[in-house]
UniProtKB/TrEMBL annotation:
Belongs to the anti-sigma-factor antagonist family. It comes from the Bacteria. Residues 30-141 form the STAS domain. This is Anti-sigma factor antagonist. InterPro entries: Anti-sigma_ant, STAS_dom, STAS_dom_sf. GO terms for molecular function: anti-sigma factor antagonist activity.
């Protein structure tokens, strides 16, 4: 019998009806899967984020981030996105600033060099640490200083 704490199991996150409608629209270019494990929330995004769906992206990020609790992390995996506009990273940077006072660290996941360049060009490395995998973002390394981890952020290397 597994005696691991219940919080170690992944569970879905409930989103607002409006957001579900937006994401479920057959013409939507944005897809997302959201899971919670203990105090940590993971968003896996697919499709595209640009000016045409920035409001939906902002709502998705805001609703998902609200579920994360200290000392957890809010992990946004954009590896499944085919296109990431600057506005997508601006939304994440704004949310990271809102999460920080609550004791929640936002971690961005992507191996795409274009995402890394956008983070660097926007001087967002300090607020959006970039990890190569979700597992590395979930690691036990100090989330406030991911550079201490062997799997720390990709930016700044």
């Amino acid at each position: 019998m597994n005696r691991a704490p219940a919080e170690s199991y992944l569970s879905p996150v409930t989103l607002s009806a409006h957001l579900l409608s937006e994401l479920g629209d057959p013409h939507s270019t944005l897809r997302a899967a959201i899971q919670r494990t203990g105090p940590t929330v993971i968003v896996r995004a697919g499709g595209e984020v640009d000016g045409s769906n920035e409001d939906t992206w902002r709502q998705l990020v805001g609703e998902a981030a609200a579920v994360a609790t200290a000392p957890g992390r809010f992990i946004v995996d954009v590896s499944g996105l085919d296109f990431v506009a600057c506005c997508a990273l601006a939304v994440l940077a704004d949310e990271a600033e809102r999460c920080r006072p609550r004791g929640v660290d936002l971690c961005l996941v992507s191996c795409d060099s274009a995402v890394a360049r956008l983070v660097e060009a926007g001087n967002l490395s300090a607020v959006l640490p970039l990890y190569p995998t979700t597992d590395s973002a979930l690691s036990t390394a100090d989330a406030a200083d991911p550079a201490q981890s062997a799997h720390g952020p990709l930016t700044g290397r």
